[in-house]
Amino acid sequence: LYRVSSGLPRCGGGGGPLVRVVEGTPYRKEIVVLDSKTRKLTLAGILVAAAVLGGVFSFPVLGSRCAPMQHLVNILAAVFLGPLWGVGAAFAASLLRNIAGVGTLMAFPGSMIGALLCGLIYHYTRRIGLTCIAEAFGTGILGALAAYPVAAFLMGLNPASYTVYIVPFLISTGAGSILAYLLLRFLLPKIRREKL
User: Fold this and answer.
1) Where are the beta strands (DSSP E) in the chain?
2) In the beta sheet, which residues pair with residue 30?
């Protein structure tokens, strides 16, 4: 996507994307530049699709399905979209994973709490390491504790205790957080250099 000066007209009289025509070349070239909300919506859709498709590579542990890709997506959404968009993407991915049969109802508290916490931490600190730790804590501890009533009352399971989901959630979020950390350590500096 290209950054365009504010003096260019918008298509359709208001909310459409900007169009820049590059003249002086053998052919006329039009470049469509999406506005901020459209870019965020597009990226959120891509991240949701990645989380749903990554749910295929999940594995069952104690009645929950561990999906490391969801936690990778939570951290990417926190960094590139912010906390509210991250929670929305986590909700949409959890809903679609349940509809597709590759997730359980425990995906909702697990992914959404982790997405909110890591989104807030990245928003205020801009530190990748703390963001990954926040995702692991939000999903692995808080999300696992919130999954107990979901399992007991909505899914009809009989968990042994309220802490039974902490270990499987920590395994899942730990793998996703490590992947996200490694990816962002190499990807984020490159993106920042290209924007300059």
Assistant:
1) 18-22, 29-33, 59-61, 64-66
2) 21
Q: Which two tokens mark 9?
A: 């007209």
The span from the CA of 21 to the CA of 16, in Å, is 16
The model's pLDDT over 49-68, given as tens digits with 9 standing for 90+, comes to 999 998 888 777 766 667 78
Quick check: 138 and 168 in contact, CB under 8 A?
no
Per-residue tokens: 117: 């916490």
Q: Is 10 a residue whose pLDDT tops 90?
A: no
Q: In DSSP terms, which residues pair with 186 in a beta bridge? A: none
DSSP state letters, 17-55? -EEEEE-SSSS-EEEEE--HHHHHHHHHHHHHHHHHHHG
Global pTM?
0.78
Question: Over the Cα atoms of the chain, what is R_g?
Answer: 20
| % of the chain with per-residue pLDDT over 90 | 53
